Structures are given as C-alpha cells and as structure tokens.
Amino acid sequence: MGLERRLLYRSGFWEIARPRHPLTAGHILIRLSDPSTEFAQASASDWLFCHNLARAALHDVLGASRFSVMFAHSWHPLGSAIGEPVAESSTPTFHLFGRWDGETTTPGAQLSLPAHRRAGEPEHNLEATDAAVREALRLSRPEAYASSGPEPGAAVEPSSGVEPSSGGEPSSESAPLVRAVETGPRHTVIEPVRAVENFRDILPVELLAMAATLGALPLTGGLSGFSCLALESETAGAALRVHALGRSAAEDVNPMEDLLRSPEVSLALL
C-alpha cells in the first residue's frame, strides 16, 4: 500500500512532494498544483526553479549527485508498469530520481520489477529524511532562484530562438532549438541543439521547444501516448536527452524493458 502523498514545497505553479509509492529515498515528484495550467513560459520557468530546488535539497540531504526525470505524456502506466512509476493521478507529474554513493537500492532495480513487487522505501525511513528535505528546500530557495532565472510566476517575454554559438542567450533568429531523432521503432530522442548537459543549464524557451516537439510526435499504429525519460550524461560534453517511447494498451512488448537494459539508461538508473 502506498503512503499518503507528502507535500514538501509549493511554488507558483508546481509543487514538490514525496510520492505515494516512493521507490527510493531520492524519489521526488514535481507536479502541477492546478492540472488545467498551460505549459507556457511562466510555468516552464517555475518548473526549472522547482527542479533546481529539489535536486539541491536531495544533494544536501542525501549527497545525490546524479539525476534523471521520468514522466508520461498522454499515457498512464498499465498493469505491472515495468520500467515506469505507477500513475498517482491524471495531474501532470514528473518523477525526479536522485542517485548517490552508498544507496541501498536504485530506481532501475525497483522499476525492473512489477509494481506489486516493488518494496519501495519504508515510511518510517522517510519521515526524518523528508523533514530534512523540507528544511533544505526552504534554505536553498535563493540559490535556486539565481540558477533558474525569473521568480516563479513572473511574466517573461517569449523568445523565438537560441543561437547555438551565443552561449545560450535568446536571439531574434528563428533557429531550431531542439532536434528529434528516431532511434528505433516507436523510439524518438529529443535534445537541445545548443550544448546543454543538464536541466540546470537549459533555458525555459528550450524546455518549451522540447515539450512542443514531444506533443507533435505522431500517434500512429495505435499509439495513445509516450513514456518519457530524461537523462543527464556523466560524460562531459554529452547532451541532455529525452527518450520518448510510443505506448499503446494493445502493445505486444513493453518498450520500457528494453530501454532499461540499454547501456545509457542502465548506467543512469541501475
């Protein structure tokens, strides 16, 4: 049985919470407070703020130094949910996983099991951890504001492009912000054109472009949505990548099982 979702912090658009089914002590949710909120410039800036805030808190409390993000787009995990967290609600939700040396279990080890066999993190182990995370979230707010740009909810003028050689400053040129490459059947990788290694360095306009690219992927062959995994490589110079796997309730094979076994993903999650 899952825990009651525990709110740790609420921002302008998003909230940081402990999920009902925490797979590890480093498993945190970033979810919309109002499900009807449009993912636009202000809410994208606020998501980056919350992401930076959450990862800083996990670093301070657990020593987490590696991070990945999982989410579903127009899709709810079914049945055993191999390879993805169980759905807690229809509210747009991102699962942030922090990794650290000495952890007793890993996200990948848990996700490789059917949902009903996942031991997760016991509630009594999380009470003190969550109290410490909540305090770290409160104390690290100024640092997160500085690294994510505008304050949550602040009005931000949209930009039409980012020049790859400009160091990340918006430009008036309408240049492509992201690229999408099909790497296999029903498998697309989306990444910024600019050299961006992690979410701390991405611009809100690039995050919006990635979301728009994901939303424009064709739902052909009976697909209903996508399971998505965003990975930050530990290799210097490697780009932040979002793996989007087409999903269908009638699928014969769960593509998340193969993705978990791939070298890039297994290194990040297992």
What would you note in describing this structure?
With 270 residues, this protein is α+β, with helices and mostly antiparallel strands. The chain is 29% helix and 23% strand. The chain is built from 7 helices and 11 strands. It has helices at residues 41-62, 107-111, 123-139, 141-148, 204-216, 255-261, 263-269; strands at 6-10, 14-18, 27-32, 66-73, 93-99, 161-162, 170-171, 178-184, 187-192, 225-231, 241-247. The strands form 2 sheets. It has a 9-stranded antiparallel beta sheet, with helices on both faces. Strands 6-7 form a two-stranded antiparallel sheet. Strand 2 (14-18) and strand 3 form a beta hairpin. The protein starts with 5 loop residues before the first strand and ends with a helix. The model is unreliable at 144-172 (pLDDT under 50).
End-to-end distance: 24 Å
The mean pLDDT is 86
Q: What's the β-strand tally?
A: 11
Q: Strand order across the biggest sheet?
A: 1-2-3-5-4-10-11-9-8
What about the largest sheet?
Answer: 9 strands, antiparallel
Cα-based radius of gyration, to the nearest Å: 18 Å
Low-confidence runs (pLDDT<50, min 5 residues)? 144-172
Oligomerization category of the chains in this entry? single chain
The helix content, as a percent range, equals: 25-40%
Q: What's the total helix number?
A: 7
Structural class, by secondary structure, is alpha+beta
Q: What proportion strand?
A: 15-25%
Cα shape: globular
Order of helices and strands: EEEHEEHHHEEEEHEEHH
